[in-house]
Amino acid sequence: MSEFKYLSEKILAAEFNILPFKHLLIEDFLSADHLTMLVGDAQIHFDETESTEDLIHQLNRKGYKIQPFPGCTSDIGEYLHYYNAGKFPSGRKGTPIESYGITYRLASHHNPNIAALVDYMNGPEFKTTLETKFGITKRTNIITAIQKNLSYYEISPHPDVREKALTYLLNVNKDESIDNEAIHTRLCVFKEEWDFVKEYWKNNPHKNRCWVPWDWCETKFVTNKNNSIVLFAPALDTLHGVKMIYDHNKFQRTQLYGNLMGVEKIAPPMNYKELLTVAEKRQKKEPK
């Protein structure tokens, strides 16, 4: 039996939270020993760096690789150009964001115990646990990995695309002082005037769900506690986002990031500006 089986048991025993949408939030997810093993490892957290260039060198040296990721660029030169200028071009790739970051994923684990943890969270027992708890029946692939998101990373509120069956995020930051930093995932709801978007997505299953502007939504909860994991099955209302500008030379936002992604393509991408057109049509139909 795996020493990490207790993680599956915690998920199966946890009760769902309903607000702001259905999700699991489990604090103290890793045991004290496993948390200490992870956050105390020199490959996971290391000394402060003097510059972003030095940080990138350290990440490369410690086995991290650039990970193509939403809200990010994979081009180091592009990222450094805008980061050093302190201003990013808004609306990247037609999305309603004002900046974008760069994500690094740990590609090789020096500590065999950390490798075993990640392997367990990519393995059949953990995957079956997630499928059972959330009632997932469609075919999916699982990915769990240690990731670092550098400053200016932003994804505006979104419920995740229809292809994704599950999202889970475990905070494994350097220490609890990071709990108060503005780097954490926000769970959101639509403001009343934009709540119709859920009905539009429901009535148009051939259209994918998309990122929406921040001012369409309200943040109801922030998943900021270290060693806490949030898990949810994407639906019409699972709005979440992140927007961070912080000193990543002192520390980096670090997570065990994971998802279950369906193996079949369901719907093509959708641009949020289509929803602006829908809103205009709705206004014209409203009685004067």
Please give a structural write-up:
The protein contains eight helices and eleven strands. The strands form two sheets. The protein has a seven-stranded antiparallel sheet with strand order 1-9-6-11-4-3-2. The protein has a four-stranded antiparallel sheet with strand order 5-10-7-8, with no helix packed on it. It has helices spanning 5-13, 32-39, 52-61, 76-85, 112-120, 124-134, 196-203, 273-285; strands spanning 24-26, 64-66, 103-106, 140-149, 154-158, 164-171, 186-190, 217-222, 229-232, 240-243, 253-262. The protein has one domain: Jelly Rolls, CATH 2.60.120. It starts with a helix and ends with a helix. With 288 residues, the chain is of the alpha+beta class. Helix content is 27%, strand content 22%.
Chart the SSEs and their pairings:
Blueprint (H helix, E strand, L loop, with lengths): L4 H9 L10 E3 L5 H8 L12 H10 L2 E3 L9 H10 L17 E4 L5 H9 L3 H11 L5 E10 L4 E5 L5 E8 L14 E5 L5 H8 L13 E6 L6 E4 L7 E4 L9 E10 L10 H13 L3
Antiparallel strand pairs: 1-9, 2-3, 3-4, 4-11, 5-10, 6-9, 6-11, 7-8, 7-10
Helix pairs in contact: 1-6
Which key features would you list for this structure?
288 residues; alpha+beta; Jelly Rolls; seven-stranded antiparallel beta sheet; four-stranded antiparallel beta sheet; 8 helices; 22% strand; globular
Summarize the entry for a quick read.
The chain is of the alpha+beta class.
